[in-house]
Design goal:
Number of helices: 6
Number of domains: 1
Order of helices and strands: EHEHEHEHEHEEHEEEEE
CATH superfamily: Formyl transferase, N-terminal domain
Structural class: alpha/beta
Bound molecules: glycinamide ribonucleotide
Number of strands: 12
Helix content: 25-40%
CATH topology: Rossmann fold
Strand content: 25-35%
Strand order of the largest sheet: 3-2-1-4-5-6-7-11-12
Radius of gyration: 17 Å
């Protein structure tokens, strides 16, 4: 029997995207083993979810390290020690140091609440509203040293409605995020999605435009 792909997850907040990953696994849709959930916030809801699911957790306080690099090198050493094959950033709100990330490039994905390359960084919902955009969305991308800048794998799109404010838009987007992230992780661990020559490849070809989340999954 071959063992399941081993997944580590980093999250800074409530952990609803982590919950979506755990639910997909529980439904039998994501054949993986979660080996670690780590956070830079000891109070993160994601850690409580992981504890309840019996997954090893790790909370590291960035303030106990001299600088970002020292924190990230320690964090990634611990992720390596967990035996993880892949790392998922599910609401991890920190920029990752390039040196710490280097050995992992191609094995780390991140979910970001915008239609990248639009609105890297923070306050994405507000910025989409202020720009008068007709649509908003979420992206899952391979993580590189450039903030929210790695190749985009897949997106979920959502029309902006007249009554949307920042909070409502974020709330309406979240259920799409919860389908998008497990779907992309499934492609990755299943081998249909690959990182080669600094690019995302899907079904053996360079992925030139992101996959789109439709009614029946990624298209
Ligand atoms: C999600 O909306 C995710 O897209 C976003 O943080 C939220 C985490 O929610 N990520 C980023 O902004 C990364 N730059 P969750 O803790 O409920 O999963």
């Amino acid at each position: 029997m071959t063992s399941s792909p081993r997944i580590a997850v980093l999250a800074s907040g409530r952990g609803s995207n982590l919950a979506a990953l755990l639910a997909a696994r529980a439904r039998g849709e994501l054949p993986v083993e979660f080996v670690l959930v780590g956070s830079d916030k000891a109070g993160a809801g994601a850690l409580r979810l992981a504890e309840a699911a019996g997954i090893p957790t790790l909370a590291l306080d960035p303030r106990s390290y001299p600088d970002r690099r020292a924190f990230d090198l320690d964090l990634f050493a611990r992720i390596k020690a967990s035996g993880a094959d892949w790392l998922v950033l599910a609401g991890f709100m920190r920029v990752i140091d390039a040196e710490a990330l280097r050995p992992w490039v191609g094995r780390v994905i991140n979910i970001h609440p915008s239609l990248l390359p639009k609105y890297r960084g923070l306050h994405t919902h507000r910025r989409a509203l202020e720009a008068g955009d007709a649509e908003h969305g979420a992206s899952v991308h391979f993580v590189t040293a450039e903030l929210d800048g790695g190749p985009v794998i897949a997106q979920a799109r959502l029309p902006i409605e007249a009554g949307d404010d920042e909070q409502r838009l974020a709330q309406r987007l979240l259920p799409l995020e919860h389908r998008l992230l497990p779907a992309v992780l499934g492609l990755l661990v299943g081998g249909r999605l690959q990182w080669r020559d600094d690019a995302a490849h899907y079904a053996g070809r360079v992925l030139s435009t992101p996959l789109l989340l439709g009614a029946h999954g990624l298209e």
